[in-house]
Design the sequence.
């Protein structure tokens, strides 16, 4: 009996997993040699000197010096890390209309760093930076609208903001705009339009878009079904350590979709994903050991991996977890008590290897 479970499932960069961005690039201006000396000191890692030169300029109201001082406090460069001080200097520059500082001040409010967490205040400052054309601010403002953080959830407004950032070439926004079309959030569901935006992001190396584009090709959504093209994009994401892509690439090799059937290669990719703690790949790898496909048949290893899959499936995947339990019991029915004890020991001692996300 085949002990493998789900395969080829879509991996979307869901909104709750998106990382808010913070600007860490220095503001450089031409207001004098002292600032140039500070920038030079910062670039060579002499943070104490950079701080000493910047502080008087910041106290004189020089906006980029205030912003740079905020970065140094936020990162603990030349001074002890102090988020409250970072907020103070970001605010001074933000109130003078400096977009980078408005963005970073918003980030501090969104994450409760140096100030109490306040999504409404974060939205206020992101909006100010976005209105100046700041692409990262457009992206994070879209995120806030998509999640109803600091504003009422509003998918059309999220789409609007993602589009502005996407049209500036920002790959995360292109991927997320693709998701909105893929799922029909804020726009009518449109798979070809989703593919269009996934491709733009994927061609820039965006790993989540590479996975999403692969899934669309594998399932013929928004583009003709093309397993070879799916394999191409799964591989790009898999080689960057993305467990979902590694699992799905293993599936393609196991079943000969887009590539010649190759069980050892399937085992290789399943193992990479399983070693990161990806539950589906654990079950799939267990299935290969159970059937002796690409590896020597080994019930102990099969039991270990399927048992680990059982413990790694989240509560939201109850049906899949229950199937894994049945598969584990099937494997156990072929084993001696001593073999089961050994498999359980291996599962207890197993530790994941962190690679992708």
Sequence:
């Amino acid at each position: 009996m085949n002990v493998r479970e789900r395969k080829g499932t879509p991996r979307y960069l869901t909104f709750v997993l998106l990382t808010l961005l913070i600007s860490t690039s220095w503001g450089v201006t031409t207001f004098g040699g002292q600032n140039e000396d500070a920038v030079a000191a910062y670039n060579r890692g002499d943070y104490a000197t950079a701080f000493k030169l910047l502080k008087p300029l910041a106290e004189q109201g020089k906006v980029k010096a205030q912003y740079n001082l905020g970065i140094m406090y936020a990162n603990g460069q030349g001074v002890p890390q102090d988020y409250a001080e970072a907020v103070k200097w970001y605010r001074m520059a933000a109130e003078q209309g400096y977009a980078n500082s408005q963005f970073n001040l918003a980030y501090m409010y969104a994450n409760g760093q140096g100030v109490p967490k306040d999504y409404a205040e974060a939205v206020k400052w992101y909006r100010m930076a976005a209105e100046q054309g700041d692409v990262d601010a457009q992206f994070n403002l879209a995120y806030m609208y998509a999640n109803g953080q600091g504003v009422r959830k509003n998918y059309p407004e999220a789409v609007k903001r993602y589009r502005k950032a996407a049209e500036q070439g920002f790959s995360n926004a292109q991927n997320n705009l693709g998701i909105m079309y893929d799922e029909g959030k804020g726009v009518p569901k449109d798979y070809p339009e989703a593919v269009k935006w996934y491709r733009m992001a994927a061609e820039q190396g965006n790993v989540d878009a590479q996975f999403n584009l692969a899934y669309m090709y594998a399932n013929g959504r928004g583009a003709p079904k093309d397993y070879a093209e799916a394999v191409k994009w799964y591989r790009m994401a898999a080689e960057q350590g993305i467990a979902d892509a590694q699992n799905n690439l293993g599936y393609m090799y196991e079943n000969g979709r887009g590539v010649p059937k190759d069980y050892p290669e399937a085992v290789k990719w399943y193992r990479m994903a399983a070693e990161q703690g990806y539950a589906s790949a654990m079950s799939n790898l267990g299935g290969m050991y159970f059937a002796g496909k690409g590896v020597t048949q080994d019930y102990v290893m099969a039991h270990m991996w399927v048992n680990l899959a059982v413990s790694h499936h989240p509560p939201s995947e109850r049906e899949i977890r229950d199937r894994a339990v049945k598969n584990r019991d099937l494997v156990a029915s072929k084993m001696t008590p001593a073999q089961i004890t050994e498999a359980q020991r291996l599962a207890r001692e197993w530790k994941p290897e962190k690679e992708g996300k």
Q: What stands out?
A: Residues 318-332 form the longest helix (15 residues).
